[in-house]
Amino acid sequence: MKEINRQELWDSCKAFHGHECPGLAIGFSAALYAMKLLDCGSSEDEEIVCVTENDACGVDAIQVLLSCTAGKGNLLFHMTGKSAYSFFDRRSGKSFRLLLKPHESASREEALHYYRDTDPEQLFDVMDVRVQLPETARIFRSVICDGCGEKTAENHIRLENGRKLCPDCFKKYTRPLL
């Protein structure tokens, strides 16, 4: 991996996110650590995959630095509410989970500097992944919903009395247990 300029990378993350904050700094450090452990830069396609366990500010830094995005299908959410990120390299087969170690900061500013400036090795525990490597993104045909007439990816279509319905038009069938 080529030499990186941390300040330039931080500035890119801050510009994308809109401001600097401790959460962005957590994702920034996680992405830098992942780049080091995987010996990689940003993902051109889907070779680097991140499964994040939160939808907080830090995810924006992972998008910027590793080019893991929901649109490409290499940024996925496994919502546990934890500051944890699983990374996979499809080329090498390497995978690991980064879990943020507990830390108490006196102020928001102190937390920002701590998470941004501390060596990532001190911030995260490296663990085995808990989730499977997701399959590569698939492209599905579009189907016209018989209810609203809007195009919907076929993997989201539901059948009801022979009609093809999108999730908004489909009436889920549930009956309470007595």
Provide an overview of this structure.
- Helices cover 29% and strands 20% of the residues.
- The chain is α+β, with helices and mostly antiparallel strands and 178 residues long.
- It has two domains: 6-127, 2-Layer Sandwich (60s Ribosomal Protein L30, Chain: A), CATH 3.30.1330.130; 138-178, 2-Layer Sandwich (Wheat Germ Agglutinin (Isolectin 2), domain 1).
- α3 links the parallel β1 (48-52) and β2.
- α1 (6-17) packs across α3 (58-66).
- The protein is elongated.
Output the structural class. alpha+beta
Tally of contiguous helical segments? 5
Shape: elongated
Overall number of strands: 9
**What is the end-to-end distance?**
61 Å
| Low-pLDDT runs | none
Q: Report Rg.
A: 20 Å
Whole-number count of domains: 2
Strand order of the biggest β-sheet: 2-1-3-4-5
Helix fraction by DSSP (H/I, runs of at least 4): 25-40%
The CATH class label of the largest domain is: Alpha Beta
Largest sheet: 5 strands, mixed
Order of helices and strands: HHEHEEEHHEEEEE
Mind sketching the topology for me?
Elements: H1 6-17, H2 22-38, E1 48-52, H3 58-66, E2 75-77, E3 84-89, E4 95-100, H4 108-117, H5 120-123, E5 124-127, E6 142-144, E7 151-153, E8 158-160, E9 163-165
Parallel strand pairs: 1-2
Antiparallel strand pairs: 1-3, 3-4, 4-5, 6-7, 8-9
Keywords summarizing the entry:
178 residues; 60s Ribosomal Protein L30, Chain: A; Wheat Germ Agglutinin (Isolectin 2), domain 1; 2 domains; five-stranded mixed beta sheet; two-stranded antiparallel ribbon; 5 helices; 9 strands; 29% helix
